[in-house]
Amino acid sequence: MKDETKCLHSGYTPENGAPRVMPIVQSTTYTFDSTEHIGELFDMPTAHMYSRFSNPTVECVEKKIADLEGGVGAMCTSSGQAASLLSILNLCSAGDSFISTSTIYGGTVNLFAVTLKRFGIECIFVDAEASEEEIQSKFKENTKAVFGETLANPALAVLDIEKLAAIAHKNGVPLIIDNTFATPVLCKPFQFGADIVIHSTTKYMDGHALQVGGVIVDSGNFDWENGKFPEFTEPDESYHGVIYARDFGKQAYIVKARMQLMRDFGCYPAAHSAFLLNLGLETLPIRMERYCENALKVAKYFQQSDKIEEVKYSALPEDEYYQRAKKYLPKGSCGVISIVIKGGKENAVRFMDGLKLASNEVHVADIRTCVLHPASATHRQLTDEQLIAAGVNPGLIRVSVGLENVEDIIADIEQSLEKL
Ligand SMILES: *Cc1c(COP(=O)(O)O)cnc(C)c1O
């Protein structure tokens, strides 16, 4: 099936006389006929037993997203940050390291550089455009993964996923891709060699600014028995000797993430949140099409304005990532544009405060047009050096083009630029 159909039908198939719409199973727990059955579930969870780590409504959404990405399984989390965190913790323990491109979401930089460091896990940042030799030279004996973002937030750099996948695989480790901005509608990283995909579903997937969430998706393609991942090939004593690679095959990674990490950390979404996420997913393909269409028009408007120094949007032929975007994002480059306004930070703030329709908020990839000044908001915690590495100029504004009529969006921008 194609994406439009999957978004409506994957994950939930009602039986005869069952509700047409996926029901909200708002229950913390599930009952069983025998003590023995419950006992068995503690050795091998084959049914829902407690909503800290699995729930029927959330499971429907997990199946839908796995299907959209072309993976073998998925696990929802209560935020995108939780998805990033668990995607790494499922591979790295204290004493391990992993490699990440530096052009990633500011919150992820902080998680990787500050918080994981306190856990004894080292993140080695690399320039995504560095040569293969240079990236290769960063690998250590204890390096367990490579991480990058399809469309970096907010620099809007398009990642060469195939290049990173090749380097990761040469070193026997998986490639994790944060596919939040692209969504599986615009890019399916597994087709280019990624092994694990994560999302902040808070953005386009939910799409309506209703609830924070995340998801981890497993391609099922990585060989966990290559000698580098003993946690996958040796018995897990907390489940009476389960061996993930042996017992769960292609789903080893995602089952392990649930059985170990979600069980212990419990950052699982509520059924009601999953229900709302599903509503967003149902219209994702048609929304993405319109976001791309509107954003391209807005980007072209910015391009011809003499108040704007630079426009970053990879669907523009002049953009440095245009050729790569044609390969990885052939249907469009999402609704997010980065602009650098002439007159630096001061004019950036004046422009943003002069907008009437577009709102100034800590959000992106939403149904309503919104703007954000990363240097004073999401990326505030970064040093100047980290800001430059993340591709964030102090005058840079992130414009998240929504689904209003594009003429109204442009008229609003025009009236604010005129006042500068
Ligand atoms: C927002 C975002 C995150 C973090 O997700 P939350 O849902 O806010 O926790 C991670 N990656 C990217 C690319 C994001 O835009």
TrEMBL record:
Sites of N6-(pyridoxal phosphate)lysine modification: K203
GO CC, alphabetical: cytoplasm
Gene Ontology molecular functions: cysteine synthase activity; O-acetylhomoserine aminocarboxypropyltransferase activity; pyridoxal phosphate binding; transaminase activity
GO BP annotations, alphabetical order: cysteine biosynthetic process from serine; L-homocysteine biosynthetic process; transsulfuration
Cofactor names: pyridoxal 5'-phosphate
Keyword Aminoacyl-tRNA synthetase: no
Gene3D superfamilies to which the protein is assigned, alphabetical: Aspartate Aminotransferase, domain 1, Type I PLP-dependent aspartate aminotransferase-like (Major domain)
InterPro entries: Cys/Met-Metab_PyrdxlP-dep_enz, OAc-hSer/O-AcSer_sulfhydrylase, PyrdxlP-dep_Trfase, PyrdxlP-dep_Trfase_major, PyrdxlP-dep_Trfase_small
Transferase is among the record's keywords: yes
UniProt record similarity statement: Belongs to the trans-sulfuration enzymes family.
Protein name as annotated: Aminotransferase class I/II-fold pyridoxal phosphate-dependent enzyme
Organism: Velocimicrobium porci
